[in-house]
Amino acid sequence: METSHQMLAECRYRRRVWDLTVTWLAQPNLRPNAWRPSSNALEWWTSITTTPDSPRKALRSLTLLIMWEVWKERNARIFNRHETSPTTLMAKIKDEASAWLLAGAKDLALLLARK
User: Fold this and answer.
1) 81-95: per-residue pLDDT in tens?
2) What is the pLDDT at residue 6?
3) What is this structure's pTM?
């Protein structure tokens, strides 16, 4: 049985999505090989989103968005037998982040403006 951490972060596909996020935002703490071992998803999430170099609220919002999109991709694969590439999923994440900016996500705007 998959743990929540495995579902959100540990497979090769999901690691590629996180690597694409690092490239997009220049946030090295989001690179999977930089993650500290964790015993659960909350510990992992707190660890990767706590950095002195980035606005915490923005980084946490963005990682939740990524996890949500990864979860939806997982469900599409399991229940609908529909797969997208990591780059296609990354494009969806960027589009959704842009929608969040239009909706007034000020902290996220600060993070995305740094890229």
Assistant:
1) 999 999 999 999 999
2) 63
3) 0.85
Q: Supply 32's token pair.
A: 């999977």
pLDDT tens-digit readout, 36-55: 887 888 888 888 888 877 78
Q: Which domain holds residue 54?
A: 4-113
CB 113 within 8 A of CB 101: no
Say if residues 89 and 19 touch (Cβ distance below 8 Å): no
| Contact assessment for residue 27 and residue 21, using Cβ atoms and an 8 Å cutoff | yes
Distance in angstroms (rounded) separating the CA atoms of residues 101 and 93: 12
Would you state the structure tokens that stand for residue 35, as one six-digit string? 């993650």
Q: Please count the residues of the chain.
A: 115
Count of structural domains within the chain? 1
